[in-house]
């Protein structure tokens, strides 16, 4: 069996399919003595990959072997674990592997360390808790174990901040190595532990990067190793090379730099070709810091350019690329092109050609000094010529962005129109020349570029007959080698060439309309119609403009109705992609449950809310959160297509009405649709005149769920819009508290009318510009407020009696059932003046009129207090009579009314307790220890990388402070490159954030008992950072 | 990190291949072919480093190779490995093979593929260099070898003793 398995391995290596032996490999590993096991494991690690299903069968075997007393079995198990174990099986073996870190045998310890490193690479969060053990491994008495732990640190230190304190240890280790303190075994060609030295030097250079104090610690030892490395063997050069790189990476010290520069000289001048290569590499690295160094080695570099070795040449070009400036760009580009012409390796071509294009585009316009050295005319010709070369050499290997950039450059141009036109003119000329020659060998992508340019700019060239252009393009069409995609480009170019030559075009269209390619055929048809109908031609530009200026309703509010219906019908709520992925992962992770230690999960509060909060409109919030207008536009327009159909089926005119409404109602909006669209994020709709409001409300409330009331600026700043999933599905609620209050003492009730507003609704009120986050606000619990009001004449005040209020943010429109005529609520603006003294100073949102009837009007506003969101409802008496008693009934399951004081003419205050509804979260003040405990007790991870604000010295601190200010978070602690932050919903669920600087991004890891909260906070963090 | 270790002969026949990242069967074969193509056309007097081809991951990766008699040893590594360091690692690998097989040749690799893999596993584990100390590697490999031998010996011994005991029983019967 063993022999056969080895044969199978051999077959597999030669490329034959031996999958039928996989299961036997596993069997072999499971049973059998050491010898068979060994071959079995070997075969498994060669045959199976991380995703292979058979691996599951192996888990038990591995577990058994890890616990075995036989050293060799443990070794084999560790090897196979490090080789093939996928992410979701790690928890199964993790504890055992950890144990092995304290195994008496160093070979086992070493393998365990590497296995853990592998785990770290695959699933960093699962091994987070054992960082301390890595530290122990680093101080292991066996140098081998220590050496393998360096692998881990090399990886960890990519984000160096938290490991600065280890610098001392690394320096000491390196000193010991250099001092020959290691056993002689570790010498290789009489150099003490060279690989270890290389690793250490790398670590040091990472640590010392841009950090003077840390760098100072290592100057001495670097000097020492530069000195020690006598030039006698390859491996010492390897150390030297690392040393030089380290010296140039850390905070510079003149003396060391000088020595390092000398070493580089030795490399570059060395007759050994490998060293020369490294020397060039080092130079490439160094010239970024000190361009002068390259000057010293000019001659060598020139020699290398003509070197017979392909790799050396390439490296030299790389070096040249780095030292390119405005003066030498032409020469360098020429060298590169020469090289490219003689080169036939695809990979190299793609790589280098991109660089050429980059250079050519980098130095063009904005460089005045460049303009001096070359006359613009000459520059133009150089640029176009270079790009021609790029296209013809690179051909179809080019990455798509090269032609795109080029065309954009042509199209957008610089400030001066004249120069642009010259450039374009030149391009047209040169392309005409090219086309007149042999075209069959030209790459498709070049042809496409040419046809675009000709179509767009041929009219600039007065001297050339249009017929000529058309003829050339048509010729291309006839060629067999031209791909159909290119044909399409050419055809559209033909379409653009104005007034023309109808006969030629017609011929062409005729011949193509029988083409087999449907796209071509369609274009040909279009072309024919276009050329026959001159009116159409004139009309075209206008149409284009229209398309661009049409407004985009990026929040898709008109889909709300559809969405809620779908939800009601049992459809799954929409989840943004990242959440879905998250869940997918969770699902997968479930596999492991049997093996993994389960974290205490606190589900209590979340499960309920979870269920009741299907996401109503997450589409809209997802979009509106996206600040890039372009993508917003694109995203929403495609979505709209889909949605529109359905909506139209039912009540078709609505969306249209919305779209047209703004211009009618608000001339100002109509005037600048374009700007609005751009500023969709920022422009807030003003509260509109209330009559319009009413109209729309009615309209809207019948159709939409959720209401985007635009009061907002303060809202945005202070409170957060709940993420879509916070939305609740309406459900009947019963808890109602009603209080009848009678206050105005003196008045007798002369007339009371009882209004019951029965319902509620969630009317949504689409604004023209719902793009703002406000629209996301509409989550509303279905709360019904029934107001039984009896009104009396109140002589003193004519307005206001009070209000019924509803939930915050967004919500609810109370629609009295008996509206007879629309009665514009009278001035709502000064209602705020009536706020009780203790509330007056709080930031508040605009007063929004909710509804009104002839005798009463309701309006509300939100007040932001640290511990609560207050909703104030104003009920105004619109009549002259005194209101005698007002019964206000508020019902909302999710609201707990803490204080409901209602004096007539005063205010009811609702303090919303329920965490879900309360829109605002608050800082959670905890200590680091508490945080730690809490962290472990929570589940529902969400992870995401966020943008890091880099404008100030300490990016992490800046970013966190920005978040703190924007979102009212509590920054618990900042340790090195990590920071922990906490917040919670009013008095409810906490959310803990763990941030780590990861390169240029901020890796944010959130945990909360509430499943939706992390997403919500993440979303707002993103927004806050984007606004910043 | 080391992405792959390939050994092939002058004709491009793979003699050993070990990938530390997952590729499909076909891609692996293509990588071997492509690598052979790149490496084989280089002169003896040029440097031992190459930028990776298309398949093995673009400009991030480097090929570091050595040519011994009929065999090419190619390590494909990413930017976190030191070129010269790897070059010497190949040397260590080959010397170790040489010691283990006593004057290694291409045939040894063919017939003892498992042993070659075991040696390699002592040097490189999951893409990371585990051990560079030749004597340590040999000790490990030999220790395992001994263990295996002793096991087979034990087996043999048991078989023999069983046979003997049976034989003696027979003989006792006969007698």
Give the total of beta strands of chain B: 7
Structural class of chain A: alpha+beta
Strand percent estimate of chain A: 5-15%
User: Greatest interface and its residue counts?
Assistant: A-B, 63 and 59 residues
Q: Which descriptor suits the 3D outline of chain B?
A: elongated
The proportion of residues in beta strands of chain B is 15-25%
Oligomer: heterodimer
CA radius of gyration of chain A is: 36 Å
What structural class do the secondary elements of chain B suggest? Answer: alpha+beta
**Major β-sheet annotation of chain B:** 5 strands, antiparallel
- Terminal Cα span of chain A: 66 Å
Q: Based on DSSP secondary structure assignment, what is the total number of beta strands of chain A? A: 15
| Spatial ordering of strands, largest sheet of chain B | 2-1-5-4-3
Q: Which series of helices and strands of chain B comes N to C? A: EEHEEEHHHEEH
Principal-axes geometry of chain A comes out as: globular
Q: Report how far apart the termini of chain B are.
A: 70 Å
- Profile the largest sheet of chain A: 6 strands, antiparallel
Query: Unreliable runs of chain B, pLDDT <50, ≥5 residues?
Result: none
Helical content of chain A (DSSP H or I, runs of 4+):
40-55%
Function (chain A): Subunit of novel type of clathrin- or non-clathrin-associated protein coat involved in targeting proteins from the trans-Golgi network (TGN) to the endosomal-lysosomal system.
Membrane topology (chain A): Peripheral membrane protein
Subunit structure (chain A): Adaptor protein complex 4 (AP-4) is a heterotetramer composed of two large adaptins, a medium adaptin and a small adaptin.
Family (chain A): Belongs to the adaptor complexes large subunit family.
């Amino acid at each position: 069996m063993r022999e056969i398995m080895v044969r199978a391995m051999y077959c597999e290596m030669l490329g034959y399919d031996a999958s039928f032996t996989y299961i036997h490999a596993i069997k072999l590993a499971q049973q059998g003595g050491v010898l068979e096991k060994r071959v079995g494991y070997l075969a498994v690690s060669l045959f199976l990959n991380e995703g292979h299903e058979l691996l599951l069968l192996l888990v038990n075997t591995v577990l058994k072997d890890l616990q075995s007393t036989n050293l060799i079995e443990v070794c084999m198990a560790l090897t196979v674990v490090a080789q093939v174990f996928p992410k979701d099986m790690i928890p199964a073996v993790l504890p055992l592997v950890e144990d092995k870190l304290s195994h008496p045998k160093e070979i086992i310890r070493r393998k365990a360390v590497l296995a853990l490193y592998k785990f770290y690479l695959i699933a960093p969060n699962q091994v987070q808790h054992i960082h301390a053990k890595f530290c122990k491994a680093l101080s292991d008495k066996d140098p081998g174990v220590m050496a393998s732990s360096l692998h881990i640190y090399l990886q960890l230190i990519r984000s160096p901040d938290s490991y600065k304190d280890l610098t001392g240890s690394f320096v000491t280790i390196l000193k010991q190595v250099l001092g020959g303190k290691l056993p002689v075994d570790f010498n290789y060609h009489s150099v003490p532990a060279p690989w270890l030295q290389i690793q250490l030097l790398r670590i040091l250079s990472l640590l010392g990067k841009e950090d003077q104090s840390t760098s100072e610690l290592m100057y001495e030892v670097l000097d020492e190793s530069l000195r020690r490395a006598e030039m006698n063997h390859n491996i010492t050069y390897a150390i030297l090379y690392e040393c030089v790189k380290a010296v140039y990476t850390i905070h510079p010290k003149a003396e060391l730099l000088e020595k390092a520069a000398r070493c580089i000289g030795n490399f570059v001048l060395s007759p050994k070709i490998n060293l020369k290569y490294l020397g060039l590499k080092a130079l490439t690295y160094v010239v970024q810091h000190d361009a002068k160094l390259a000057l010293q080695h000019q001659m060598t570099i020139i020699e290398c350019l003509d070197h017979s070795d392909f790799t050396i040449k390439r490296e030299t070009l790389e070096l040249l690329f780095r030292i390119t400036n405005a003066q030498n760009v032409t020469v360098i580009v020429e060298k590169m092109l020469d090289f490219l012409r003689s080169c036939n390796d695809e990979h190299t071509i793609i790589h280098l050609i991109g660089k050429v294009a980059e250079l050519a585009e980098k130095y063009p316009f904005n460089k005045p000094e460049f303009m001096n050295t070359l006359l613009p005319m000459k520059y133009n010709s150089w640029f176009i010529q270079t790009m021609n070369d790029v296209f013809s050499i690179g051909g179809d290997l080019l990455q798509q962005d090269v032609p795109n950039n080029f065309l954009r450059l042509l199209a957008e141009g610089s400030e001066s129109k004249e120069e642009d036109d010259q450039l374009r003119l030149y391009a047209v000329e040169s392309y005409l020349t090219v086309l007149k020659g042999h075209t069959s060998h030209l790459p498709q992508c070049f042809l496409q570029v040419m046809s675009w340019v000709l179509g767009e700019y041929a009219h600039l060239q007065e001297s050339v007959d249009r017929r000529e252009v058309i003829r050339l393009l048509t010729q291309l069409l006839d060629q067999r080698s031209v791909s159909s995609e290119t044909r399409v480009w050419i055809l559209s170019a033909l379409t653009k060439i104005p007034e023309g030559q109808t006969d030629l075009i017609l011929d062409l269209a005729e011949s193509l309309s029988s083409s087999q390619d449907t796209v071509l055929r369609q274009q040909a048809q279009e072309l024919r119609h276009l050329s026959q109908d001159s009116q159409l031609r004139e009309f075209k530009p206008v149409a284009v403009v229209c398309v661009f200026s049409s407004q985009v309703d990026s929040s898709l509010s008109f889909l709300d109705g559809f969405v809620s219906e779908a939800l009601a019908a049992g459809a799954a709520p929409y989840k943004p992609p990242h959440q879905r992925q998250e869940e997918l992962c969770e699902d997968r992770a479930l596999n492991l449950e049997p093996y993994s230690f389960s974290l205490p999960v606190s589900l209590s509060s979340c499960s309920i809310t979870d269920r009741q909060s299907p996401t109503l409109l997450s589409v809209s919030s997802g979009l509106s959160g996206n600040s890039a207008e372009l993508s917003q536009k694109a995203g929403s327009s495609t979505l709209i297509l889909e949605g529109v159909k359905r909506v139209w089926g039912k009540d078709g005119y609505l969306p249209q009405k919305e779209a047209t409404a703004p211009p009618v109602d608000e001339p100002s909006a109509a005037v600048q649709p374009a700007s609005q669209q751009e500023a969709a994020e920022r422009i807030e709709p003003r509260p509109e005149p209330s009559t319009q409001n009413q109209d729309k409300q009615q309209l809207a409330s019948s159709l939409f769920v959720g209401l985007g009331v635009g009061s907002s600026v303060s809202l945005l700043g202070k409170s957060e819009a709940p993420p879509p999933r916070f939305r609740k599905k309406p459900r009947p609620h019963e808890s109602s508290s009603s209080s009848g209050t009678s206050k105005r003492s003196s008045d007798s009730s002369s007339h009371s009318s009882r209004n019951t507003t029965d319902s509620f609704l969630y009317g949504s009120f689409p604004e023209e510009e719902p793009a703002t986050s406000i629209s996301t606000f509409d989550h509303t619990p279905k709360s019904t407020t029934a107001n039984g009001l009896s009104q009396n004449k109140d002589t003193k005040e004519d307005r206001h009696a009070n209000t019924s209020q509803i939930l915050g943010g967004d919500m609810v429109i109370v629609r009295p059932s008996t509206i007879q005529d629309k009665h514009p609520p009278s001035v709502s603006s000064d209602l705020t003046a009536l706020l009780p003294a203790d509330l007056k100073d709080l930031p508040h949102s605009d007063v929004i009129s909710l509804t009104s009837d002839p005798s009463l009007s309701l309006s509300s506003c939100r007040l932001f207090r640290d511990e609560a969101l207050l909703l104030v409802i104003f009920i105004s008496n619109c009549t002259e009579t005194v209101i005698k008693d007002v019964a206000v009934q508020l019902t909302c399951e999710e609201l707990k009314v803490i204080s409901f004081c209602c004096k007539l003419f005063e205010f009811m205050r609702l303090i919303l307790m329920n965490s879900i509804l309360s829109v605002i979260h608050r800082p959670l003040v905890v200590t680091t220890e508490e945080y730690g405990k809490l962290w472990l007790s929570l589940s529902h991870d969400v992870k995401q990388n966020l943008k890091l604000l880099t404008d100030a010295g300490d990016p992490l601190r800046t970013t966190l402070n920005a978040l703190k200010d924007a979102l009212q978070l509590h920054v618990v602690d900042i340790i090195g490159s990590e920071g922990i932050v906490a917040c919670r919903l009013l008095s409810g669920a906490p959310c803990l954030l763990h941030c780590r600087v990861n390169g240029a991004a901020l890796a944010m890891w959130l945990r909360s008992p509430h499943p939706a909260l992390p997403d919500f906070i993440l979303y707002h963090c993103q927004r806050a950072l984007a606004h910043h | 990190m080391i992405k792959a270790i390939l050994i092939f002969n002058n004709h491009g026949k793979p003699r050993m291949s070990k990938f530390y990242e997952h590729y499909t069967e076909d891609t692996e074969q293509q990588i071997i072919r492509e690598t052979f193509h790149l490496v084989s056309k280089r002169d003896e007097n040029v440097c031992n480093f190459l930028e990776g081809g298309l398949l093995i991951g673009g400009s991030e990766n480097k090929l570091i190779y050595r040519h011994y008699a009929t065999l090419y040893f190619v390590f494909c590594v990413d930017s976190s490995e030191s070129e010269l360091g790897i070059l010497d690692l190949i040397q260590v690998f080959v010397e170790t093979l040489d010691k283990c097989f006593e004057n290694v040749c291409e045939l040894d690799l063919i017939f003892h593929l498992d042993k070659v893999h075991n040696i390699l596993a002592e040097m490189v584990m999951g893409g990371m260099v585990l051990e560079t100390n030749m004597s340590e590697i040999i000790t490990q490999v030999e220790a395992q070898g001994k263990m295996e031998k002793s096991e087979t010996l034990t087996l043999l011994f048991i078989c023999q003793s069983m046979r003997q005991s049976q034989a003696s029983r027979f003989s006792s019967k006969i007698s």
